[in-house]
Specification:
With 256 residues, the chain is an alpha+beta fold. Helix content is 28%, strand content 28%.
Length: 256
């Protein structure tokens, strides 16, 4: 039965509407001002939920304000088109949703997708016990639902992928936790947003296994002095240790 007052000849709009918000480049530039909303050593709040994709062997969803990433793990499964190998293979594929960025992205893979995939693959590779999975493949598919900077996607994607691997029951040496930092006006800001990273002299993403006190990957971009790089790594390592306990607790709670 048709609804009362429903006009089939018209295109009915949504029940609620909001005015468009346009970006203003002048308002986004830090210009030697103190960080707005957070201290330089603070990171954004993290929401992490494993096991959301029931069709996958393991999955995880992570959200840090404007960065939202979903990750699914399939495997280990037999490699059909590859020669015999004593060690398994780890594949990482990253895709942007068309609406993930401020400018709509084409539904094809580009250089940015591949660079993020390579960075996440390098961060995870040394943590997975591939020697126990001969002639096997583990496929990790990451979809960036919303992006707030390349550094944030690499860091959050590494955490989500490691959580999904643990959720899939794949044996690991330890959980991988990652944190980003940017050098803005000679001050180090942890977990930079897209606007902060654009005007930074350089940025760095550190991936570690805090349980083993091991660094798995360092991804650095821009011009930074050696002293600044070491200080960024020290600050990121402290935050990684704090995040590790949160990720481990989330995994424990999901198994109850």
């Amino acid at each position: 039965m048709a609804q009362a007052g429903f006009d089939r000849r018209r295109i009915n709009g949504p029940e609620e509407s909001f005015p468009p918000v346009f970006d203003d480049d002048d308002d986004r530039r830090p210009s030697s001002k103190p960080r707005q909303g957070r201290k330089p050593s603070e990171i954004r709040p993290i929401f992490l939920q494993p096991g959301l994709i029931t069709q996958a062997n393991g999955s995880a969803y992570i959200e840090t304000e404007k960065t939202k990433i979903a990750c699914a793990v399939y495997g280990p499964r037999q490699s059909k088109n590859m020669a015999y190998s004593e060690n398994g293979h780890l594949n990482v594929e990253v895709k942007y949703a068309p609406y993930a960025c401020r400018q709509r992205k084409a539904p094809i893979r580009d250089a940015e997708d591949r660079s993020i995939g390579v960075a996440i693959h390098q961060a995870l590779l040394s943590s997975v016990r591939l020697e126990l999975l001969p002639k096997s493949t583990i496929d990790i598919f990451i979809v960036i639902i919303e992006s707030d900077g390349l550094e944030g996607c690499v860091a959050a994607g590494s955490v989500a992928a490691s959580t999904a691997l643990a959720d899939a029951g794949i044996e690991l040496f330890g959980l991988v936790v990652s944190c980003a930092a940017a050098l803005v006006d000679d001050e180090i800001w942890l977990d930079p947003t897209l606007d902060e990273a654009q005007y930074a002299k350089g940025s760095l993403v550190l991936a570690t296994m805090p349980a083993l006190e091991t660094v798995t990957s360092v991804w650095q971009n821009g011009q930074m002095q050696t002293v600044d790089v070491i200080k960024c790594m020290e600050l990121c390592e402290e935050r990684c240790t704090e995040m590790h306990s949160v990720v481990a607790q989330v995994l424990l709670d999901s198994q109850r």
